[in-house]
Amino acid sequence: GENVEQHPSTLSVQEGDSAVIKCTYSDSASNYFPWYKQELGKGPQLIIDIRSNVGEKKDQRIAVTLNKTAKHFSLHITETQPEDSAVYFCAASRDSGYALNFGKGTSLLVTP
Amino acid sequence: DAGVIQSPRHEVTEMGQEVTLRCKPISGHDYLFWYRQTMMRGLELLIYFNNNVPIDDSGMPEDRFSAKMPNASFSTLKIQPSEPRDSAVYFCASSLWGGETQYFGPGTRLLVL
Question: I need a labelling partner for A102 at 20 to 30 A (CA). Which of A30, B3, B56, B97 fits?
Fold first, then answer.
């Protein structure tokens, strides 16, 4: 089955700096790669996703890149703010009908 | 829409007792997922349904766990008998299609003493 590895497990940055979280996956048939943000006491919420026919996608301060050849994808957060502090999860999935396989999560702390 | 609804939000029980967790997915979503989250193992998929039919239950830890989806708007996850190692946050999520955006509920925090 699919195996998703996520690094680092914890990340601390100063407000205004950039943060990068990386994930690798094992199933070459995976073609949907979402990123979720989980705040304390809440369920994960989708923040951005990318499909295998796209190499990069941006949404304001958040961007995701995908390298299908190397089977890895990354989340980039620019101009970090304290409210970005949360646990971030990457995931991978095949086509419709398959469940998401989540990474172990990255705890991001943005210090003022 | 109210989003995915889970109840109870918190549950404290004693070892050996039966625990039932409930979930109401977003209306119109065909897929429903149950996850368990712990510090050690992260987010684990337990089981998921498509149109009320269980598709993959390979993540269910053992026979003490069972899940049902009697209709499109309701699902239960039951643990009988419960054990301390079942203590975790249990999330329900739903999506229009299986590999698409999943919308998570707020979770049920279970503590088995």
Answer: B3
If one counts every other C-beta atom within 10 angstroms of the C-beta of residue A105, the result is 22
Q: What confidence category does residue A54 fall into, taking pLDDT thresholds of 50, 70 and 90?
A: confident
The pLDDT of residue A47: 96
Kindly state the tokens that stand for A26: 């094992």
Q: Which amino acid is at A107?
A: S
Cα maximum dimension of chain B: 37
For chain A, give me the number of helices (H) and strands (E)? Answer: 0, 11
Q: Do B104 and A96 touch (CB under 8 A)?
A: no
Would an 8 Å CB–CB cutoff place A98 in contact with chain B? yes
Residues sharing a CB contact under 8 Å with residue A85, sequence separation 6 or more, in sequence order? A108, A109, A110
Residue A93 per-residue DSSP state: B
Tens-place pLDDT, residues B32-70: 999 999 988 889 999 999 999 999 999 998 899 999 999
C-alpha dihedral, B28 to A96 to A33 to B96, nearest 10°: 0
Question: Nearest Cβ partner of B33 from A49, A95, A99?
Answer: A99
- Is A43 within 8 Å of B55 when comparing Cβ atoms? no
DSSP line for B77-100 = EEESS--GGG-EEEEEEEESSTTS
Q: Which of B93, B57, B48, B52 has its CA nearest to residue B69? A: B52
The answer to whether the Cβ–Cβ distance between B106 and A97 falls below 8 Å is no
